[in-house]
Amino acid sequence: MPSYRVALSVGTLRPGSRPDELLPRAADAAAELTTVEARDIVLSRGEPQLVVRYTSPDDDVAVAVGAVVEATVGELADVLSGRVLRRDGGAWTLVAAV
Q1: Cα-based distances in Å from 70 to 82, 90, 91
Q2: What does the radius of gyration of the chain's CA atoms come to, in whole angstroms?
Q3: Which pLDDT score is estimated for 75?
Q4: What is the pLDDT of residue 13?
Q5: What are the φ and ψ backbone dihedral angles of 50, each rounded to 5 degrees?
Q6: What is the DSSP string of 57-79?
Q7: What is the pLDDT of residues 28-52, one digit of tens each?
Q8: pLDDT of the residue at 7
Q9: Which run of H or of E encompasses 84?
């Protein structure tokens, strides 16, 4: 089954939210729908991003999972941008913006 990841750049936290709850909540949201392979915080172009890697049977389902993750994180913080990417060999290919 192909590997995908959703990468989200976040901004200001919502009142009552803590920074340390963003990544676990993002991964938990994906895990309700599919198998989560990994989760991490990475620095991309100087900007920290939440990254959740997961499996999906196809691009459409992967984008739906990414949208759920984005909505979950959006309850806790402003989501500045988001992307769903598919693993193609050794590279990640953009599937959609979320």
Answers
A1: 7, 25, 23
A2: 12
A3: 96
A4: 94
A5: -85, 135
A6: SSHHHHHHHHHHHHHHHHTTEEE
A7: 999 999 999 999 999 888 888 999 9
A8: 97
A9: strand 77-88
Q: Which residues are CB-contacts of 2 (< 8 A; sequence separation ≥ 6)?
A: 55, 56, 57, 58, 62, 86, 87
- Mean of the per-residue pLDDT values for the chain? 95
Q: Are 8 and 22 in contact (CB under 8 A)?
A: no
Q: What is the 3-state secondary structure (H, E, C) of 31-58?
A: HCCCCEEEEEEEEECCEEEEEEEEECCC
Task: Measure the CA–CA gap between 25 and 62, rounded to whole angstroms.
Answer: 18
User: The pTM is what?
Assistant: 0.94
